[in-house]
Design brief:
single chain, 275 residues, alpha+beta, Pnp Oxidase, Chain A, Alpha-Beta Plaits, 2 domains, seven-stranded antiparallel sheet
Amino acid sequence: MIDPKIAIPLDKRAWVTSLLPQQIVIVSSVDADGTPGIAPKSWVSMAAFEGPILGFGCNVTHHTYHNVRATGNFVINVPPARLAEIIWGMAERHGADRIAAGGLTLVPAMRVSAPWIEECVGHIECRRIDIKYMGNEVFIFGKIEHVAVSSACLTGAASERYAHLDPIFFLEEKTYGSLDAARQVGSIPPLRRNMFLVKLGPFAVAEDLLERHAHYLATLRAEGRLVMAGPFLDGDDGLIVLKAATSEEAQALIARDPLVTAGCPFSLRPWQRTF
């Protein structure tokens, strides 16, 4: 049976679930005095191979629009998923306070005055070539002048390269998604090694201990160490999948889990993901 289709509002802000997940980037720019600013954007896209040219959406009330209009350049910084919480917190701050609160490091770009954000995985430097106005909204087009990416994104199988890029996508209000795995058409996915399967419990868990355990797992996820985790529904034990270079490193990570330090038994085994 074909799933019936239901009409939804035309306004994208009302799309739940969103039909167009969009990659989140951080646009850096400077004003006429050279003062830097950063802003998260998700309406960004390549516009033409020749140039090459990309564009991003903005609002005329935003500092990014005024900066790019004044200086004519900007950088599209590509953040990994571990920066998602920081990006969402940017809405509450502005200017230098936004940069400092996120613990982000600005470094000089290669060919434009707008800076790189060091914690991001890649940087696309652009010079403005056009601005299209749609009421209070604009789409800014830039000619790409320089592109740089982490060296780990340039070696290995596609699944490994994209796992390091770890892009994030805006879905809807306070909701984002990440790239689970890169797959190539017509081929068996390559193995992803350096993973460890941890089986926890069973162990009686107090509420405060469970909260500390969850907070630690959130920290591992933010560091790019946690692949997945969760309890079994038919018992009081659970499963964690970690990314680590060695078994000793994985052992050290799980040893700092509040559940384990409280005495929860665990077993750790090397594992490789194929599908």
